[in-house]
């Protein structure tokens, strides 16, 4: 029998609450929320009744409950223990998200309640992990807008506001990332510099460069770290000097982008050739 646990984390930057239910087998009686709930089923199966519709919920499904959606659910005998991740979003915050993405402050009605979407699911899982770990604010914000742009574009039946950036704005954003790579950078910092919204920045940056702002920043930091490593600076110091918060994250990103660990990379350049005797 699985042990039940519940974890909740409030994220002030994003203005939402993240939670995790694990090992939950009890039914949820009929109820509703005064806020939005976005969820992801990691494991377990449920029979859900929402607004009079009978729905089946399986691992990998996303769920969206609008405010005042009446719903209840019970576990199935095949997979009774639920592992469920979710975000709670207040109506006021959703109005702000709507204004950012569509140019209109409104409370969208998302449909359907249960759906599968690999792109949204992947963004959800990474975003949830970063919030629970209290880490990586730029990547966290970036994923937030990637996820909600997807949800508004496909499931809220509203038109996303399109304000593409000029090439000069993209260039200025890149220059800002390069000159402040060793510092903590947020989307607000970049957007204030180039006078655009967060959603417009992410869409245009990715379209023109093929990279998100966070991916671009990681590339710059790894490049700087390579310079430090060649100079013989220890990997732990090279990580901090190039803007990484900890060595574990640094090693992971460095290995992913170069195919080598920082130590292995450094050894390539610091390895001394064997001395030779010139005398006959």
Q: How is the secondary structure organized here?
A:
Blueprint: E1 5-11, E2 16-24, E3 28-31, E4 36-43, E5 46-50, E6 53-57, E7 62-65, E8 71-75, E9 82-89, H1 91-102, E10 114-115, H2 118-133, H3 137-155, H4 167-179, H5 187-194, H6 198-209, H7 213-230, H8 235-241, H9 247-258, H10 262-270
Antiparallel strand pairs: 1-2, 2-9, 3-8, 4-7, 4-9, 5-6, 5-8, 7-10
CATH superfamily of the largest domain: Jelly Rolls
Domain module tally: 2
Radius of gyration computed on alpha carbons: 23 Å
CATH fold title of the largest domain: Jelly Rolls
Name the overall outline. Answer: globular
Protein name: Transcriptional regulator, AraC family
Domain HTH araC/xylS-type: 171-268
InterPro entries: AraC-bd (IPR003313), AraC_XylS_family_regulators (IPR050204), Homeodomain-like_sf (IPR009057), HTH-like (IPR037923), HTH_AraC (IPR018060), RmlC-like_jellyroll (IPR014710)
Keywords: DNA-binding, Transcription, Transcription regulation
Account of the 3D structure:
This protein is an alpha+beta fold and 280 residues long. The chain folds into 2 domains: 5-155, Jelly Rolls, CATH 2.60.120; 167-268, Homeodomain-like (Arc Repressor Mutant, subunit A, Orthogonal Bundle). The protein contains 10 helices and 10 strands. It has helices at residues 91-102, 118-133, 137-155, 167-179, 187-194, 198-209, 213-230, 235-241, 247-258, 262-270, and strands at residues 5-11, 16-24, 28-31, 36-43, 46-50, 53-57, 62-65, 71-75, 82-89, 114-115. The chain has a 6-stranded antiparallel beta sheet with strand order 1-2-9-4-7-10. Strand 1 and strand 2 (16-24) form a beta hairpin. Helix 2 (118-133) packs antiparallel against helix 3 and helix 3 (137-155) crosses helix 6.
